[in-house]
Design a protein that fits this description.
The N and C termini lie far apart (about 55 Å). The chain folds into 3 domains: about 40 residues, no CATH class; about 280 residues, 2-Layer Sandwich (Chloramphenicol Acetyltransferase), CATH 3.30.559; about 210 residues, Chloramphenicol acetyltransferase-like domain (Chloramphenicol Acetyltransferase), CATH 3.30.559.10. It is globular, with a radius of gyration of 25 Å. Helix content is about 40%, strand content about 15%. Helix 16 runs antiparallel to helix 17, helix 17 crosses helix 20 and helix 18 crosses helix 19. By secondary structure, the protein is α+β, with helices and mostly antiparallel strands.
Length: about 650
Amino acid sequence: GGGLPVHRALLSYHGWIFESHGKMSTSTKLWLSLVKMFSGRRPLLYSFQASLPRLPVPSVDDTIQRYLESVRPLLDTKQYNQMEILANDFKESKAAQLQRYLILKSWWATNYVSDWWEEYIYLRSRSPIMVNSNFYIMDLLYMTPTHRQAARAGNVVHAMLQYRRKLERGEHAPLRALGTVPMCSTQMERMFNTTRIPGIETDIVQHLTDRKHLLVYHKGRFFQVWLYTGGRHLLPSELETQFQRILNDTSEPQPGELKLAALTAGSRVPWARARIKYFGQGVNKASLDAIESAAFFLTLDDEPQGYDPAKTRSLDSYAKSLLHGKCYDRWFDKSFNLISYPNGKMGINAEHSWADAPIVGHMWEYVLATDCFHLGYTEEGHCKGDVNKGLPCPSRLQWQIPKSYLSAKQIADDVDFHGCLFTEFGKGLIKKCRTSPDAFIQLALQLAQFRDQGVFCLTYESSMTRMFRDGRTETVRSCTSEAEAFVRAMEDAGATKAQRLALFRKAADKHQNMYRLAMTGSGIDRHLFCLYIVSKYLGVDSPFLKKVLSEPWKLSTSQTPQQQLNLVDINKFPKYVGAGGGFGPVADDGYGVSYIIVGENLITFHISCKFSCPDTVRAQHKSYTSVFMLHLSQLSDLRSVFHSLSLSLYLPLCYCLTV
């Protein structure tokens, strides 16, 4: 223990993040070797938790100055001047008092943001979590290791049980930036045996210790499957047997059972009321307990999904299936649902309050690598190993349900999705141009947003703050004045390539700097959010904070992390690339864009919006979607459109390459 305080001081250094790529200063090299030395040879998952620094509270002046800078491209002069007056009035009158409370909180809490973030952004929200909050992760893009549904589910569930055991024993290696700088592991604690329980005013996250069963849904029936026999995990072949038994079971759902899970898809209050009224005793309580205490929820789906190059909309229907399914065949409250398709494809739908996407992604990466490279399949596509005939059959849950409740179908039917594989170039070419792939894509999205809507909008990009204890996310406001200048130059026929390139560089540098500030605790949005919560607690009215927190994020974006674990060498096994994941739009009249930069030459986009918004879905028959273009209606000939857009991005690219 004597070494820990030194360690915390060491880990509070973030200078390395601000150094340009490939140019590491001597002081950073020295610091890295010290961190390595203190870390020991094989640290465990939670080895560094006590030595992680606390998230600092930025100064009010810095936050307000950065906030004003971030809204400058979105407001006309008059609106901006009004905003400035509001901000300065806040700074001079109420800010100091609210900031004092936050600084106090940052001394006694492990993280001054995270508990409020979980409570107010997630658990107190009364709107449906399906589409609005839950997110999804897809399977491998090009590979299906077996086409037998029960076998694939058997291997994947077994790999998850292995992951869970390592997690409970803290045996996973901690995630480390640069391979050395530790990141917080707190979010992983609630991955399994966790359910979001609805309440009238606020939900709670219920996490139980090791549970011995899994809940399986198939064609409207709920089955309980025991995961242990004789003190050990069921083997993949035994799990396959159990899942096959469920697939072969021809019994009918009980009255009201088929659509029961739709309760978890609708608004939280009706669900909380129904839960109290109908599920408080008897068989209903026992059955609901079985679901809520299960390790996780598995749906054996009855319609094949997955990417099929021969079908234009295959990724889109796969995405919609993972995001909401039929609205009654996923238990949206579980920490995650594993979804298994008849053609052997899989996927995940995850609840968002307990953790962010990289956490689920970490587990999924481990599971896919274990499934394909360690467990494997027989030549006939079955799980390896002997079949144990003596296992007790899965048991049906029993219900007495007065009627089937509400339909969440409207929400699901309103989500339009487009999944898109961009293969003309990727990280390889972008890096040759000495620019950050993330900044490149964010600027492309600004260009696309402007071409699509004719205006700039408040843009959300999530970045993580996990170098701090209990850190979760921070917002990068990607629509900057520098990005606006670049987009306008791209749209100005009179601008030269050299001018466009110079503006591109400037905007990319600005974006990278903001991303780095967000990661090191100097973001704007979490600080303003917490000041607002303090103002509510103290009954202090602040027109400035109210305005800031009511602004809609019309473009919400996120990069799915790729290969956090490096378990599979993508150069050697190019078919084993993941397809990433996505989420619904945050604003009713906006877009949700998730992207994953895979290998050197592929960028996969998951784009969502709502049919009900006339601005985002243009006349169905002549939509002109392209890679970064955010039109998501019926897609016609993609090739030509890709071409026109990638050419406009190619100009600065080709120029960089020839310089």
